[in-house]
Every structure is written in structure tokens, then in C-alpha cells.
């Protein structure tokens, strides 16, 4: 699955915000997409090894985490200088069990840019 932030989810986000990736462009064999779009939390339906990547485009210093059941499993950090734009990125491979929840959460307040398809989450079941 690959999903990106939708227009309604751009803007300033406070620390602890669960990032919503409602613009799903690719998915296969996922039954709970509507719940994911609304909550920002992906519930694992099929256990296995997953590759998870998230990137968030911003013009300010940003810090976010990929979470599994409230535990941080990867972090993304980007330190911006005035007038620059860049994406903070995090990638992790992890074994997931049925009903585990995966989400992206801000660790500090920052602005998510409105550039289409520039802030996204990808989950791939590899085994």
C-alpha cells in the first residue's frame, strides 16, 4: 500500500498528531482501508515481514516516528535552514502480527506541505 496526505490534512500539526494518509494510490488485499484513511492507523490483517517507509515534506525542522502499538520503531528527522524545503524520511523492516497497529506520529510541532504526493507512507509485505 502507498498512501499520501490528502489536501484536508496539510498544514501545521502539533506534537503527538497521528498523520493521516487518506490519498491511497496503491493497495492490494487490504480490507480496512476506510478505517486507515480516517484514523491514520493501519491494522495488520496478515502477519509477516513488512518494509515500512514514511516521508514528510516540510520547510521547517521536523521530527516524526513510525509507531507499532505505541512503540517507536523508526524515526525521521530533518533540520531545515531558512527558505529550504526537504523531506524527513524513515524506513524499517519488521515482523508484524495480526491486529498490530502501525502509524506515523509527529514528535514535535511542524508544518506538512501541500505539495501533492510529497508526504506518504508505504507498507509492503515482503514475506
UniProtKB/TrEMBL annotation:
Q: Report the transmembrane regions from the record.
A: none
Alphabetical list of Pfam families matching this protein: C1q
| InterPro entries per record | C1q_dom, Tumour_necrosis_fac-like_dom
Q: In what residue span(s) does the C1q domain sit?
A: 13-109
Q: Which domain of life is it from?
A: Eukaryota
Q: What is this protein called?
A: C1q domain-containing protein
Amino acid at each position: 500500500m502507498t498512501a499520501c496526505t490528502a489536501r484536508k490534512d496539510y498544514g501545521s500539526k502539533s506534537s503527538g498528531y497521528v498523520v493521516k494518509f487518506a490519498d491511497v494510490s496503491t493497495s492490494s488485499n487490504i480490507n480496512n482501508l476506510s478505517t486507515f484513511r480516517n484514523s491514520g492507523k493501519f491494522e495488520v490483517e496478515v502477519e509477516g515481514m513488512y518494509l515500512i517507509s514514511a516521508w514528510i515534506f516540510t520547510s521547517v525542522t521536523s521530527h516524526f516516528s513510525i509507531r507499532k502499538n505505541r512503540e517507536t520503531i523508526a524515526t525521521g528527522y530533518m533540520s531545515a535552514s531558512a527558505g529550504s524545503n526537504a523531506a524527513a524520511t524513515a524506513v524499517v523492516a519488521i515482523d508484524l502480527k495480526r491486529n498490530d497497529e502501525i502509524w506515523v506520529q509527529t514528535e514535535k510541532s511542524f508544518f506538512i506541505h501541500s505539495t501533492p504526493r510529497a508526504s506518504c507512507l508505504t507498507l509492503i509485505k515482503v514475506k
